Amino acid sequence: MPKVTIFPDERVLARTLAAQIVEAVAQKPDIVLGLPTGRTPIRLYHELGAMHAKGQADFSRVTTFNLDEFLGVPPEHPGSYRAFMQEHLFSRVNIPDSQIHLLNGVAPDPLAECIRYERAIAAAGGLDLQLLGIGTNGHIGFNEPARELTGSTHRVLLKPSTRHSNAALFGGNEENVPREALSMGMATILRARRILLIATGKSKAACIERAAHGPITTRMPASFLQLHRDMELVLDEAAASKLSRS
Ligand code: PGA
């Protein structure tokens, strides 16, 4: 059974989790973090920024690897996950640029880029703490439900539902959302020493129950997290509302 922590609302969740992450950084200043994008971690990132501004957190030795990036979107494009991270986290804390890693969506050879990324994670000593969001369809990173899943960092075709939920980054028009992306694979994620999956809101309640207690299936990529030794679901009441509390 995964460990589950439930908070009354998003604000308390973000504040408590930020304090836990700052504590983890204090314990291991050169921690390697795996980071998600999406609406879910925004409050958390802003809390980390606020703690840094108050002198409560030093990220100067932290290394980060983001989960995924759109293919064909340059880092400086406002719709890129690089730009998202810059806005919501990197501009607010003191992680040196050289310690920030994202997949390059415009790398001339996407396959070589995926191999480079896996090697960079390994060279950093692996991921100490991977933060994850979850798609309503059960995806983690851009590992979409499918007949088969890929272990290592790879090129993916995005589901229409995923393109729809990313439309806001591309002028509200899902037709402008790239059809492909690069993503850490399931094994890349599962090799992290500790995983925190964050979900808020009632739209996530059904996939959280399936991920936590349903069968382990490629149709629900997050269900593979049940195999991890140190995985915790960090939820608000709404996301936890369908969880069988045994
Ligand atoms: P969200 O996305 O945080 O915007 O809900 C999560 C995800 O798709 O992984």
Chain-averaged pLDDT: 97
Integer-rounded radius of gyration: 17 Å
Name the poorly predicted regions.
none
Strand order of the largest sheet: 1-10-9-6-2-3-5
Strand proportion, as a percent range, falls in 15-25%
**Strand-pairing-aware structural class:** alpha/beta
Overall 3D geometry? globular
Write the H/E string, N to C: EHEHEEHEHEEHEHEHE
- Proportion in helices: 25-40%
Describe the structure.
The chain has 246 residues and is α/β, with parallel strands linked by helices. It has one domain: Rossmann fold (3-Layer(aba) Sandwich), CATH 3.40.50.1360. Helix content is 30%, strand content 17%. It is built from 7 helices and 10 strands. The longest helix has 18 residues, at 10-27. It is globular and about 50 Å long. 2-phosphoglycolic acid binds next to loops.
What structural keywords apply?
246 residues; binds 2-phosphoglycolic acid; 10 strands; alpha/beta; Rossmann fold; three-stranded antiparallel beta sheet
Topology, element by element:
Blueprint: E1 3-7, H1 10-27, E2 32-35, H2 42-53, E3 63-66, E4 68-70, H3 81-90, E5 100-101, H4 110-123, E6 129-132, E7 154-157, H5 160-165, E8 180-183, H6 186-190, E9 194-199, H7 205-213, E10 231-236
Parallel strand pairs: 1-10, 2-3, 2-6, 3-5, 6-9, 9-10
Antiparallel strand pairs: 4-8, 7-8
Helix pairs in contact: 1-2
Bound molecules: 2-phosphoglycolic acid.
Residues 38-40, 133-135 line the site of 2-phosphoglycolic acid.
